[in-house]
Amino acid sequence: MSYAKGYNLENDEIDEQLVKDAVEAAGKSQVTVIFAGLPDRYESEGYDREHLRIPVNQTQLIHAVAEVQPHIVVVLSNGAPIEMPWIDKVQGVLEGYLGGQALGGAIADLLFGDANPCGKLAETFPQKLSHNPSYLNFPGEGDTVEYSEGLFVGYRYYDKKEIEPLFPFGHGLSYTTFEYSDLKLDRKAMLDTDQLQVSLKVKNAGDVAGKEIVQLYVRDVESTVSKAFKELKGFSKIALQPGEEKTVRFILDKRAFAYYNTDIRDWHVESGDYEMMIGQSAAEIRLKETVQIQSTVLIRRTYTRNTTIGDLLADPYAADIAQQILRGFKGNPLFSAANDEGTSEMFAAILKFMPLRAAAAFSQGAFTEEMLNNMVERLNGTGSDM
Question: Hey, what long-range contacts does 34-37 have (CB within 8 A, 24 or more apart)?
Fold first, then answer.
């Protein structure tokens, strides 16, 4: 076993002699372990990082060693995600974060197999800085920063934008493998006041003992409000001996399916299908099952002149009233063209996104402003029948 310094921590300058010594030592070894990461001058609680790179002398060292050594493990010491342009040059990456005074011993135990890694990332590692959800808004202008990403932070953003990260939220490897099976829901349909029990089996299919963190995500299949594609709603860490199998259970209540509705100032569950997604990470979903939930709270929408016809048709209460608008188009040339082959789909799309205020003009007098005002009043329960 040999050691070479490789680079200086005090600056980013490439020391050719240090690189040469490291390459020579690596060429004579079976496996090379490179310790890299962010020095104190790169990150602190007192200022923000301007990029996700590690010092250039460390990056250059990894590339140089890779020229003579295919078996490289990089051990990282850093407080936050970094870019890894060298990831395809190494066989393994051990994320050490900022482990404190016992970090050295822990790393040795993991590298030599005396302990089995079982951690999972609590953040997403992007491929590059511009993939970060706050990239266009941070650091802002002057003394103002707008957190415009809203709900779409972390894995929610990468899901919604369909951006593949370097490493997804919840990712973490092991010296063993785990098999997921037999996902069960204790009911297929429920009220939002009920609880749902989710269970599955996890088996250690490898040769060494290990721990796995099972992650439960919930997806609202079709929502009328802006939501993430899926959201983490539970996780459980279990220890398994080789060949051992255990049942993991989750209990979900209303909050697991709800969003905060500002109109009623309370958490609200929309009626519909919700998908239970079991994963080893946010990007590695292993099992899925669906439950249908019926809301016990009826929210009556407030309709205005800007409400679209599509919104009316999607509301059972308002759908019958909306049909009167469509009947008002009879005799209109565009309405007649809707029955022609190739134009009905276009016409349907126009109607779906047409606001009520445009209906009067579009109907060429068949649907008047007076009828429109009366329609809005009826939809809101304040007017008389037309």
Answer: 34/6, 34/61, 34/62, 34/65, 34/72, 34/73, 34/74, 34/75, 34/90, 35/74, 35/75, 35/77, 36/61, 36/62, 36/74, 36/75, 36/76, 36/77, 37/76, 37/77, 37/78, 37/82, 37/96
